[in-house]
């Protein structure tokens, strides 16, 4: 059957295989039922069918949900219990993998990230350094704590720290984007998971695009938080979340990052000053008894430290190690964390798919169709509990890929996670007696609250992050490797480009003191202006071409050609087997009329002569009707 024009794919609909053709390039779309279903404008019957399906999904009652969840036979309860046990076990090691990834990232990039914080001198540089440092450290909490220590040491001002916090908000969303790539094996799951993950990135970038210029012009976050912060803050007891108690010991048995080293490097020290690693006993003599007292207090440690509470040193701690040794240990743990992460993700998806197999979609949708503000509160509560917004969104990303959680529900949960991670920062600030620590934490809180006020309560503003995230999800259908390009560009290339241009501006303008050496460079200033104009023109050109020109159509056409090529290569062996069988059938039919004149033509085909089971000399020229029935491409044997 030829592709049906301007149609979409409908799960479970009769003849669903007939609706696999994509929408014509540039075709308008009116109704988004969810992140994977599209309804073309000119297909009223199809639109009515999906609208009815959506109404049926919404028509499920909570009584039906409770009945489906809790009314089982004894065997049913045993099956559900076994699935839940498997999910809990996989979830534990999934959380361990995320914790290990963050710890190893701090060891791998600790010296580089620490050095980044030493070059902050303008808002754009602060934003970009916040993004890059958080991506390298895999933790916005660590970035925030470093910023607080720099502010407390008068290394940077609170106003500059606010821009770094904005960047850290963007950088922390890379983790769940990486997790979404674990569903690359299924294009439908990848599309939904990637859209659910990138809605976090999109919201953070849009919030920064609006609030950074406002803060640069008015300093409203600085003034608001300064008015709310007392001159001194009394010391409080440090609160450790339950997640650290559950998976922390296993991570600490392997590797423990030295956060104090990162803070010292950010204040101007060099990593080489902390090497080689040495352990001494109380008498000052070298010892092979490696523990916190001998190695940290009496000795010297590098990027890998020992546990202060238990006193034990991790498995990858090396006495006498140099910087390259610790960084190599960090890389090993990082790859181990990726391996465990993928395994646990696959296991969780398999178990969840098996558990939900046969469940009514309307029941699942009712169970997860939460009020937006309630979902926001749940996201904040979970994040406060686990002390990490990355963990909250990363755990929910596979559920979005399985279509258990819709994009409309994932969005407010993500916003709640942003609020929850700022509460964690406020609790950490209570430990310090410095008012600046509390001011930075409050600035982080009110930045996220401001973004939510702009993009969530107003329906048409709420659609901006959702539409962009949906489009990014659709891009993965055209090319499953699009997420890799997206991560590299969004979290590395773009911030590095902005950082380089901002440094040129700073060096070109100088610091304005008029002293020798501080007057700036006209050449660098000219280069900065040219690069800025070029960047603005490039962005404007491609934005216009994508919105009003042919760039979108050309990208979609390229993706479609690539997809068809991959499908053709994948099915090549089966197609050739089909052609062989058709030729065998054709040759075995005495009415085909082949003659010996076609022997040379047939011999060129990749078909064993004995498979034909006929004498090639007996083949005669086939009638036109027989040739017309053959697949395109085999009508012409020469």
From TrEMBL:
- A cellular component term (GO) from this record? plasma membrane
**Topological relation to the membrane, as annotated:** Multi-pass membrane protein
UniProt keyword ATP-binding, yes or no: no
Q: Name one GO molecular function term.
A: sodium:phosphate symporter activity
Record bears the keyword Transport: no
Which chain regions cross the lipid bilayer? 77-98, 124-148, 160-182, 202-223, 331-353, 373-397, 409-431, 437-460, 481-505, 525-544
> InterPro entries attached here?
Na/Pi_transpt
Q: Which domain of life is it from?
A: Eukaryota
User: What does the UniProt entry say about where the protein is found?
Assistant: Cell membrane
Q: Per its UniProt record, what Pfam families does this chain match?
A: Na_Pi_cotrans
Primary location group:
membrane
Give GO BP annotations, semicolon-separated.
sodium-dependent phosphate transport
Q: Would you tell me the protein name for this molecule?
A: Uncharacterized protein
Family, as annotated: Belongs to the SLC34A transporter family.
Which keywords annotate this record? Cell membrane, Membrane, Transmembrane, Transmembrane helix
